[in-house]
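Note to self: keep these together.
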Amino acid sequence: MTILEIDKTATLTQSGLFNRKQIADYLGVSERTVSNLMRRRIIPVIKFGRSVRFDPVAVHKAMTRYQIEAI
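Structure:
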């Protein structure tokens, strides 16, 4: 499974949003990389005060812009 395929077995939080650790696991990267992607505004984030959440569908859509097609 590539990082751009939606994982049907992923467990969503009650609100349907992922926290930083869950989105890092979903993408297969570290939490620090997620923070860097947030800071560079590559992936969308929803902020509740100091708390951040991610919509996995929106993150998936944002990451497809960086997919390189095979020749």
